[in-house]
Structures are given as structure tokens and as C-alpha cells.
Amino acid sequence: MKRRLLLLIPLLLFAVLVVFLYRGLAKDPAARDSALLARDFPAFSLTTLGDPSRMLDRSLLEGQVTLVNVWGEWCPTCKQEMPQLLALADHGVRLVGVDYKDTRENGRRFLDEFGNPFEVSLFDPDGTLGFDLGVYGAPESFLVDADGVIRYHHTGYITPQDVDDVILPEVKKWQQ
Amino acid sequence: MLIRIFPELGHFALILAFAMAVLQAVVPLWGAATRRPLWMAFAQPMAWGQFTFLILSYLSLTASFALDDFSVAYVANNSNSLLPWYYKLSAVWGSHEGSVLLWVLILSGWSFAVSVFSRHLPRDMLARVLGVMGWISSGFLLFILLTSNPFERLLPDVPADGADLNPLLQDFGLIVHPPMLYMGYVGFSVVFAFAMAALLGGRLDSAWTRWARPWTNVAWAFLTVGIALGSWWAYYELGWGGWWFWDPVENASLLPWLAGTALIHSLAVTEKRGTFKNWTVLLAIFTFSLSLLGTFLVRSGVLTSVHAFANDPSRGTFILVLLGVTVGLSLAIFALRAPKVQSLAGFGWLSRDSLLLINNILLVVMTVTVLLGTIYPLLLDGLGLGKISVGPPYFNALFVPLTALLCLFMGLGPLARWKRMPGRELARRLAVSAIVAVVTAAVLPLFYGGSFSLGVTLGWLLALWLVLSLVRDVFDKTRHGRSDKARKGRTRLAGFRKLTLAYWGMVLGHLGLAVTIVGVAMVSHYNVERNVRLAPGGSVDVGGYQFAMTGLRERRGPNYTADTATIEVTRPGRSSFTMQPEKRFYVASGMPLSDVALRPGLFGDLYVALGEKLDNGDWSLRIQLKPFVRWLWLGALMMAAGGILAVIDRRYRRAPRRSAALQTHEPMPSRLVPPSPTEVTS
Q: Is B269 part of the contact surface with chain A (CB cutoff 8 Å)?
């Protein structure tokens, strides 16, 4: 009888695993946490969209809470997201763009056409920074605190409602 | 218009295949439980019918791709009229729906193969094996039909052209990597089905392991090749020169591989010695469960990953239910039916048995390590402990020492005898190997890199230890070939003849691991990487090579435009050659992609990726030297070849007669088909 009970151990372990998997699944997939939360923003060395000779690195994100937005001219949702980003910039939020898997011409045209909420846009044509961030599409946004640590990850499009309900409160929280 | 009906045909064939899968799942198992030969015999025709209709369904989807039928949503999302024909055909498995269809097609292909090559099995055993596979197949077909129908139409607004296949997937790697990987993943369903059949039939002797071993080896070999191809593809296509990222999806393929490696060895012990019975059954369940878990992790989107599929929560829930039912049921059956009796055959603390036990424990620990690392974010988050994930440092810190331990014992294993091995004799036989390995490994990095590196030394030490102990073993085994009768000059040859293919398979597989380890150690420690800016006419020195950009031109591909640089590479005293890295821009999706130029070599690759154009006409370039990187995949191919070699060993072809004798174990009421003397299995 005792041995029989031992044989039940694998089943019990598996049941525990399924509970965790289910809880992972039950969450809204769009609100999924990045693997990078509470970690330093990955190191990078990229030129800016406007000026190919200007190289920027991680120090760009230190000293101030910043919302890093990954976008691309090829991404239709990014166009819909622009008004919300402009509104955030009006609220005094510092925004840095990452022009992801794009060409310089298209990226610049996009900002001319839809407005430019970004203090600066990093140019990431090969998606190296995007890869380090674990981005699997655009738009995605990362809130980085004054020490350069990722504090919040928003997958997909920021709706007008998200601006008031999520993004601004998060920004406030980390500004303190 | 014939083209218009292909999707409906395919959908219909899929439904018929599902119906047959259900019959294959229910009838033969019921027949085996109630001993009705006719019901048991139902398994084969259903397996064949299911396979046939899945082929039809699959071909219909392929036809929709080939004929650019953009009224099919899946085609519209993953193809484009400009796509070259071979990518149209491989785009069938370029995204979620089609790849699950391929998954099920391969599963039914394995069922078909089992029903063809295992006719010598006792009829109830075969009925149970195919019945279990029928259950798995029914589950996945239902999954496709309910949540992932690839034949869904976009009516009435048919797009004029498709959105194109993701440029990263427009590559030879995509054509071969997923099918190989799935062959491996799904192939483990066979050994799982055998284990379940043995449990259900209450026949946990060593017979089932003998039948299951060739299938397991083949599946494992496919998985090995699949993983190697994936790593190779990442290396040259993603454009970063990395070959393993410990990404959740990569881990999902490594998990069943590690468990499967343990399983191969444990099956051998159970077959030869009749020990480890419960353990082997449990490993069979564990291995296939990890295949299913991998499928869940990749497709449900619970983990973020670079190659996660587009996610849909209903799909995740469905696969989780499927996973829960399959694994839960099989573990419950295991708990209820696994034999209580401890096996009688014992073994000494130093013996081949004990070493294989250590090997199994280490491999399972490695599997659990990777599993925990992969699902760690889920566990922590589920416990409310925060949101952290683990990266390469965690995996490397645990995986490297575990591999080192594994290799240490791997060197001893083949030389040890079953049951009991005197430690003194083992030490005597291996002393020379050990000393030579240590000395060579300590000195070798000095010659190559000029600097001492602990990682490289460790890598070479393990590899040499494996190789030298195998050499010693082959040497000893051939010496005792036929020493009494034959003359001295012929003994060694006779000894070589006596060694079986299965033995050579083991040797090749272990050598393969040694080769891979050398590759890992060298490329990890002696990799050179430089990011440079170059204008046409300029040049740069990297690692003793001079890279000169001699030209730059624009080029049009079938569905992209490209800037192609011509780089002339020279090295003092050697002839020069050119490399042509390319920056492509895919028209339909608007995505840029860097096409890397590679100069492969057995002792190192040159790797040049074209970055972006800088404003003053310069281009940024990433130049890398990758010493021994090919050894990674060469070793994997050797391992896979070893697995196959063991399968074609003669003893498996002799199997029918032997198992016929075992058949008397359970009396059969009658025979439907007279046994044919010409029946020969693979």
C-alpha cells in the first residue's frame, strides 16, 4: 500500500504544475508580463532616427522616468496609438521611441505625418534592441524608472482609456 | 473552378480523419479489454484511413497555397503571389494552424508506420498501442477543428493579395526545421503508447521495451537533427550569430530531448536486465508529456518568447485540457497499474547498471533544471512572489557542471560490465585515458588561443575523456575477438567484425557529444565580434583577416529589393575570397532583413552581416569569427546517426521470431490472418 502511494507522486506533481499553467493562462494575454520586469533596461548602442552619426546608449534612460515605445512605420496599430502618445507627452511624460525594423526614410515620414511625441527616437533596423527586450510585435511600451530599471510593460496598443487608467498612474508611482 | 473547392475538400477530409481517429481510439481498446479479435483488428484499417485522409487534407491546404487562393484566411495571412513556389509549399507550416495540421499528419504517419512494421506484435498489444495513439490524434484533430481551422474562408471580401510569409521564415531552414522537430516530438508518442499499452495489458515484462526501442531511437534521432537545424537556422538567419538563447521555445525542444536521452538508456537496461521497469515506464510518460508541454508553451502564449505564435486564449485552454487529460490519465494509470514487486535482479554499486542509473538521474535533473528555469516566471507569478525570469546565467551555471558530471560517468559506462565491475580493473583500464585527457586539455588552449581559459580546458577535457575511454573500449573489445583459434594477425579484424551495429551506434553517439562539447567550448570562449563602419573602398582588420569593401550594388529578388556589399577577405599567405552580405527589404510586409554572408570552415566560420546605411555613405558591418562553430551541429548529426545505426542492428530484424515466443504469454482465442513466413520488419 505504501509503495502504491509512492507511485502517486508523479501525478500529484503534475497536478500542481497544471494549476500554475492554468493560472498563467487565465491572465489576460495582452497584459502579460515581460520576462524583463524589474530588470535593467538592456544595454544598447544605437543611432538616432534623425541623426545617423549620433550614438546613444543606456545612459539616455537614467535620471528620469521614461516611457520607451517600440514602433515602426510598417505597423498600422502604431498609427492609431500616436494620439495617445502625443497626449502623454502633453502630460509631461518623457517618451523615447524605438523605430523597430524600419527604414530611416519611412520612419521619418511617419513622424512627419502623425506627429512626434518622442524626445528622441532610437533607430533599430535589425531589431537587436527589440530582441533583447523580447518584443514580438509593435507597438509595445516599457516604462523605465530613473535608475534605468523596467517597471511596467504594455503589450500592444495603448488605448485612450489606458492613458488615464494605467500609464499615468504607473508613471506617477515610479516618479516618487 | 476546381481551385474553389480545395479548402472544403480539405476540411471535409479533416472531419473524416477525426471520425476515424475516434474509432481507432475506442474500438481496439475495447476489443483488447474484452478479447474480441475483430474489434482489435479494427485498429489498422482506421490508422490507414486516418493517414490517407490527413494526407488529402494536407494536400488541399498545400494546393490552396500553390494556387494563391487568398479567400482562405490562413493563406492570405501567410503567403503572397510573389513568394517563390518552394516557400509557398513550406509556408503551409509557417504559422499556427498549418503547423498543427502537420503535427497531426506526422502523428498519424507514425501510427501508420507502427501498424505496418509491427504486425508481429501480439494482437492485443498492437491494438492497445494504436488505440492510445488514436486518443492523442482525436484530441489534436478536435483541437484543429474547434479552434484552429486552417481552411477558414475570408468571404465575401477576398483580399487581392496575401500579407506574405514572415521574411525570417523565407529560408531553407524553415523548409526542414519544423518537420524534423515534429517528427521527433510526435515520435515519442510511439514509446508512450507502448508504455501505456503495457500498463493497460498488465504486461510489464521487458518485451514492450524491446519493441519500443527502435521507435524511440528514431524519434530521438529526428529530434536531435531538428534541434540542430533550429540552432543552425538561428545562427545564420536571425543575424546575430548566436546559436542557443535559452529561449522558452528552444527549451521546449530541449526538454523532451533530455528526457528522451534518459529514456533511450533506461530502455536498454530494462530490456537487457529487466530492472528499472517502473522507472522506464515513467520516463516514457515523462518524455511525451514534455513534448506536449512544449506544444502548450509555444502555442498558448503563457511565456514571452522570440518565436511565440500568435496567441488566442481559447487555444491555450484547449491544449492545457488536452495536456491535463493525457498526462493526468497516464500518470493515474501508472499509479494504479505499475507493478508493486521490486525487481529481483540486483547490481553492485559499481556496474554498468549503477552507472546508467546515475546517467538517468543526471539527465532527469538536467531536464528538471531546464523545466524550472523555463516556467520560473509562471511559478513565481502564481505564488505572488514577483515578476522575474531567469536568463542564460542561470542555465549556464547549472547546465555546465551537470554536463561535466554526466560526461565523467559517460566515460566509465561503456567499459563497465553489467551487474558488477571491480573498481580496480576499471581504474586500470582508464588510467591512461584520464592522464592523457588531463594533460592534453591543459596544454591545448595555449597552442590555439595563446591564453589559458578554464572553459576551453574543461570542454576539451570532457571531450577527450569521452573519446579516449571509447578508444580504449574498442581496443579492448577487439583484442579479445577470437584469440584462441585465429592466428595473431587476424584477431583484431575478427574482433571488429564481432562488434554489433548497436555498439557502433553507441560509440558514434557518444563521440558526437564530445564533438559538440568541443564546439560549445571553443565558440563560447574564442568568439571574436566587431562592429565596424565601412565605405566602399575602405577596409578593416579583424582577427588576422583583412576585410575590404570593394563594391556595393542594388539587386532585385523575387519579392524583395536588396543592397548587396562585396567584401574581399584576405589573410597573409592565403588566397583571398569574397563575401556578399545583403540587406533586404521585403516589399509586401515592408520588413527589412539582414542576409548574412558566411564563410564556413571546419575550424571556424567568418560571419559578416550588413547593418544599415549611415548618412555619409558608410555602412555599418558586424564581423564575427566563430571558431569550431560547425562542430556543434556536426556532433548533433553524429549523435543522430548513432541512434539510427543502433536501429538498423540485425537483432531488431530478428525480432519477429523471438516475440512470437513471447506471445504465448496470453492465449489468443483465434487468428484472423495466418502468419506469413515472409513477414519481415524493418
A: no
Identify the DSSP state of A149: B
How many alpha carbons lie under 13 Å from residue B375 in its C-beta half-sphere? 26
Are A123 and B612 an interchain contact pair (Cβ–Cβ within 8 Å)? yes
The pLDDT, as a whole number, for residue B667 is: 39
Q: Does the residue B302 lie in any domain?
A: no
- Give residues with Cβ within 8 angstroms of B503, minimum separation 6: B477
CA distances for B294 relative to A20, A26, B62, B287, angstroms: 15, 18, 26, 11
Count how many domains chain B has. 3
Contacts of B317 in chain A (CB under 8 A): 25
Q: Looking at the structure, tell me whether residues B467 and B557 fall in a common domain.
A: no
Q: What percent of chain A has pLDDT over 90?
A: 11
| pLDDT at position B297 | 80
How many angstroms away from the CA of A166 is the closest CA of chain B?
18
For residue B304, the chain A residues in CB contact (below 8 A) are 32-35, 134, 136
Contact B389 A106 (CB under 8 A): no
Cα gap B3→B62, rounded to integer Å: 12
pLDDT at B39: 92
Which chain A residues contact residue B335 at CB under 8 A?
4, 7-8, 10-11
HSE-CB for B159 with a 13 A CA cutoff: 18
Looking at B526, B559, B592, the residue that finishes a domain is B526
Which domain covers residue B97, as residue numbers?
Answer: 1-165+650-682
Indicate if B658 and B611 belong to the same structural domain.
no
Enumerate residues 85 to 104 of chain A having a beta carbon within 8 A of any beta carbon in chain B. 101-104
Who's near B406: CB < 8 A, 6+ residues apart? B359, B362, B363, B366
For residues B466 and B434, what is the distance between their CA atoms, to the nearest angstrom?
A: 10
- Has residue B195 been placed in a domain? no
Is there a domain that residue B635 lies in? Answer: no
Q: Which residues of chain A have pLDDT under 50?
A: 28-35
Q: Does B278 touch chain A (CB under 8 A)?
A: yes
- Select from B526, B554, B577 the last residue of a domain: B526
CATH number for the region A31-175 comes to: 3.40.30.10
Q: Provide the ipTM.
A: 0.78
Size of interface A-B (CB pairs under 8 A): 120
Whole-structure pTM value: 0.80
Residue with cell 557529444: B513
Q: What is the Cα–Cα distance from B658 to B656, expressed in whole angstroms? A: 6
Q: How many CB atoms lie within 10 A of CB B267?
A: 25
Q: What is the pLDDT of residue B663?
A: 41
Question: In chain A, whose CA is at the least distance from the CA of B330?
Answer: A11
Between CA B391 and CA B388 the distance in angstroms is 10
Ranges of residues in chain B whose predicted pLDDT is under 50: 305-310, 482-483, 486, 655-682
pLDDT of amino acid A163: 87
* pLDDT of B277: 86
- 8-state DSSP, B163: -
Domain boundaries, chain A: 31-175
pLDDT at site B3: 57
Give the per-residue pLDDT at B426. Answer: 84
